[in-house]
Amino acid sequence: MSGLFGPLQEAQAYVIQRSLRPHLLGRDPLANELLLDQMLRLDRHGRSGLSMTGVSPVDCALWDLKGKAWGQPVYRLLGGPTRPSVPAYASMLRFSLEPTAAAEAAREYQAKGFTAQKWFFRHGPGDGEAGKAKNVATARALREAVGPDYALMFDAVMGWDTPYAIDMVKRLAPLNPAWMEEPIPPERVGGLRQIREAAGFPIATGEHVYTRWQVKELLVAGAVDVLQTDPDWTGGITELTKICALASAFETPVVAHGHSLLPALHVAAAQSPVTVPRVEFLIRSQENKQYFHKPIYRPEGGDVRLPDLPGLGLVIDESKVESRTTMEFKA
Ligand SMILES: [Mg+2]
User: Fold this and answer.
1) How confident is the model over 81-95, as a mean pLDDT?
2) Among this protein's residues, is 123 annotated catalytic?
3) What pLDDT does residue 314 have?
4) I need a surface site. Which of 165, 234, 249, 307 has the fewest CB within 10 A?
5) Is the whole-model pTM more than 0.85?
6) Residue 69 alpha carbon to ligand 1 centre in Å
7) Catalytic residue chosen out of the listed positions 45, 123, 208, 257
8) Is residue 16 part of a domain?
């Protein structure tokens, strides 16, 4: 039996090889609950940040292995499918934010069948009033391009502070955003709650939040409307499934960040559409991330069909592999 997951960044591979691998060798790979609990306790600093970006892909690979052992897609082992395909929103990172160009791209992806899009603001507190005006000009052009009722989201990638964010959400509110994402870093829970109260429209965060306990803090504080914990980072498929159960008790939807598509897709396919309404599809990076895979999973008409292969459905396309090297990190 074997399980596969990736791609990984070098820092993740370092955590896995130096910290986790000695603990995992020779263990029962089907006992993913036991292994996750122990990985969370292995390093005294290990329940957040970089350590969790090493723990999480190991958990995803264990689910791939479990699916292959049972001969079933992972979403079936998780209790799905709840639907034959899952809607994806178009995540427009690295598109031009010049209003005319952005509006043109927004119309193009709306026409492809995407029922929601997310755009990223470039300007923050260091750019003063002129930067705020540019953010709003882009947002207004996008709203005019897609029409008044289309789901249009915005992301500040933690680049703002609370006063700046409060001013921005007040300026954005007339444009009817479906959510404002990561206006500030997620551990600033009190600030998020203030921004949420000022906005009057949904606030999203979670892609840099790790494990169910950090999620609980946001939910109990009333600081979030849409949770975005990423299975590649927050503790794997095992932890994201627990987070979905927790979030459903607060009637807060989970729309996982889309660092990679497949783990989030399998979890989504095993949850109620109320709990997980969509997945994220990063238009300009998913094709590269899946370059060595076959099949390549991408939305068609705005929806991603579920894999029917055992495990995660991740297969290496050998025709693209030119060489293989084992990474070694010396002490
Ligand atoms: Mg984001």
Assistant:
1) 98
2) no
3) 96
4) 249
5) yes
6) 34
7) 257
8) no
